Amino acid sequence: MSSSMSQTRPRLLPTSVLLAAILALLTTFLTGSPASAKVPPALYLLQGVPGASVDITIDGKAVQSGVAAKDVIGPVDVSPGDHTVVFKTADWEVSSSVTVAGSQDVVVHWPADAGKQPVVTVFDNDVAPVPSDKGRLMVAHTAVVPPADITAGGKTLFTNIANGEFVSAEVPATTYNVAVVPTGGGKPLLGPVDLAIKAGALTRVFAIGAPRDGSMDAIVQVLPLETTSATGTPSTVDTGSAGFVRPDGSVDTARLAFWTRMLSLFGWLRGWSV
After folding, report:
1. Where does 35-125 sit in CATH, by number?
2. Of 103, 143, 107, whose CA–CA distance to 223 is shortest?
């Protein structure tokens, strides 16, 4: 920054405007982005149990029979509100009450300890617009492994993701060499594999199966997104339900990242209010 710019006197910003900006950001964080409330219902059913042939019903009505592992069914035509989704084989039956609101994935998968029957986890799809030169990557842990890290090009992108958790980031559209490794390092549990991230798309990756029986695999789902101008946008925007690692290697969590951005915004606004 030049000396002339550094000596520029900050403009006055009323305290009421400062507080309104902070309140608006808090509201967005606590209730979700305004765009998410306008997303029409879109329910996807994902089969994440390797080797199983699964019959799926919603509210007692058949959706599809003989669904193989890695299959993605949908979007299913359902109304907003509560619905009961049942996944059934000859050996087990699991169900989940799903409140349909916006774009969602309902995934049947084994828990981390490979119990007697699978579990069902519901993930919300972040279909907010992305910059035109970027895509949104979401990685979910739905495999029979302990908490794991996600690496890209040999560098840790996300860390300590437990079964049923997910992480998400906006990244430049390109192909990444991705692997799932035990938290703290070790032999890859899955991959490395080349993963193409398309511009203007949500790429969701679900790790499934178990390394002990060679069934580790991944479901890849790609959903189109609206785009915005690429000018002046950050290279990554991290969210999710698990921790992540910044490009400099420091570990953070989604909530801590929010408060970091919150404090940065407050400082920026505070500089305008003096």
Report:
1. 2.60.40
2. 103
